[in-house]
Write a structure and sequence with these properties.
The chain is an all-beta fold. The protein has 1 helix and 43 strands. The longest helix has 13 residues.
């Protein structure tokens, strides 16, 4: 047997020889003293091919050494001898050591990556202070691909598999649910026909808790669920294809197939389409919407629509508001990067936008995928501000002739808000000077004719509002108030 030593020094050759003799002596078939039977536990109790397992003996904790065997104790069956009484503890490997076994606390045995041939009875012989103990445990390694169909020899019953939703859009999730018997031992899912390269995962429901073993085709987006269902997140176009499930149930096996087709969410994005696109009109109702109102954008063109995508501006992923698939039952909506939560698709691939804001102003583009081709249309909308009455100040001014007066009109500075001035309900004097987007009025070198009531009015194509009045009094030079 091979011996793994601790740090050199501190141990004579006589001591080492004595320990080696003791290791062999405790192999059971050389021991003459009575051995106390002890329990051994396996964790997990039903290991799956490829998993790790730990065998832990009971009994007294004051251990001199222990020997693990595959089967009954013998030199040919010996896995390893572990001597925790040394400092540091030492492990000596036997004829049945595979390189996957490690001794641990309490003389436990840890086996990595168990294989089907690891199935069998394991025996531990412990030398403890004042005697010896023996324990046995049987483990059965369950084949991770036992339900793979191509390894099963028994007949398999065909079962249905349903996909929810049945019509899938790129980026969505799907759940594949097999029928058949509910008393399931385990199941394995594949992309395509059952084979190791196609294996997505094996799910063992008979374990507590259930366990999942990932296969060669596992992408990290698949999760098993109740009834051996398979949930796939964030579908891609490459997920299109046939899926197979093989279930091991009490008394037999079942197999089911389902085909899913993932439709490109951005197929109608225009910038991805290579075929010619027919230009179509798009109407806005109302045509000049007011801030806070709703608007509906309705494209023309063919009515046999597969899907459509709406954009703020030119077609691009950052500009995408939503994709609407009326060909699904029920129709489906996939939100894009420019979706605000106020947009809703409707009949004929119309787009309804609620509670308009000023920054909703711009050009909107729709790209429709219709039977036999594609169509594109755009419409500009300008959201007009709901105007409030301006505030005119100062409200009252008294000046002498030849002085200057300045009046300010505090109102919206939006690009579509225009300001006009009136004096006594008529156009202001020609010599008046306007500045700050017409929000400031200056009348130089005033005369008595310039006195009166001034107002400012703000308007856009949808509404208007008039300010409070400002009263201007012009007095002759040298004449005091009240004289």
């Amino acid at each position: 047997m091979e011996r793994r030593q601790g740090p050199p020094g501190g141990r004579s050759s006589r001591q080492a020889a004595a320990l080696l003799a003791a290791a062999v002596l405790s192999s059971g078939f050389l021991l003459t003293q009575a051995q106390e039977e002890i329990p051994v536990t396996a964790e997990p109790p039903q290991p799956l091919q490829g998993q790790d397992i730990t065998l832990t003996p009971g009994g007294k904790p004051d251990i001199v050494q222990c020997v693990w065997n595959r089967g009954e104790p013998s030199l040919s069956n010996q896995i390893l001898t572990y001597i925790p009484s040394l400092s540091p503890p030492e492990q000596m490997e036997g004829a049945s050591f595979t390189g996957r076994e490690t001794a641990g606390p309490g003389c436990s045995l840890h086996i990595r990556n168990v294989i089907l041939n690891d199935t069998g009875t394991y025996t531990v012989l412990k030398t403890v202070r004042g005697g010896a103990e023996v324990g046995r445990v049987r483990i059965e390694v369950l084949a991770a691909i036992l339900s793979s169909g191509f390894l099963l020899t028994q007949a398999q019953e065909e079962i249905p598999v349903t996909a929810e939703p049945p019509q899938l859009l790129q980026g969505q999730d799907v759940t594949l649910t097999p029928g058949g018997k509910p008393d399931i031992v385990q199941c394995t899912w594949y992309r395509g026909e059952p084979s190791l390269p196609n294996q997505i995962l094996t799910y063992v429901l008979s374990f507590s808790p259930p366990e999942q073993l990932d296969g060669a085709n596992f992408t990290g987006r698949e999760t098993p669920g109740p009834g051996c269902s398979l949930h796939i997140r964030s579908l891609t176009l490459n997920d299109t294809g046939n899926y197979t499930v093989v279930k091991t149930v009490r008394g037999g096996a079942e197999v089911g197939h389902v085909h899913i087709e993932v439709l490109a969410a951005v197929l109608s994005s225009g910038f991805l389409l290579t075929q010619a696109q027919a230009e179509i009109p798009v109407t806005a109702e109302p045509p000049q919407p007011l801030q806070g109102q709703d608007v509906t954008l309705t494209p023309g063109g063919k009515l046999d629509i597969v899907q459509c995508t709406w954009y703020r501006g030119e077609p691009s992923l950052p500009n995408q508001i939503l994709t609407y698939v009326p060909s699904f039952s029920p129709p489906e909506q996939l939100d894009g990067a420019s979706f605000t939560g106020r947009e809703t698709p409707g009949p004929g691939c119309s787009l309804h936008i609620r509670s308009l804001m000023l920054n909703d102003t711009g050009t909107y583009t729709v790209v429709k995928t219709v039977r036999g081709g594609s169509e594109v249309g755009s419409v500009p909308i300008e959201v007009l501000e709901m105007l409030s009455p301006p505030n005119l100040w100062p409200e009252e001014v008294t000046v002498e002739e030849h002085e200057n007066i300045t009046i300010n009109c505090a109102t919206s500075k939006g690009s579509n808000a225009n300001v006009y001035w009136l004096k006594d309900g008529k156009p202001i004097p020609v010599k008046s000077v306007l500045s700050d987007l017409n929000r400031t009025l200056t009348v130089p070198d005033v005369s008595r004719d310039d006195g009166g009531t001034y107002t400012c009015q703000v308007w856009n194509p949808a509404n208007s509002a008039t300010s409070n009045p400002s009263y201007i009094t012009v007095m002759r030079v040298g004449i005091e108030n009240g004289q």
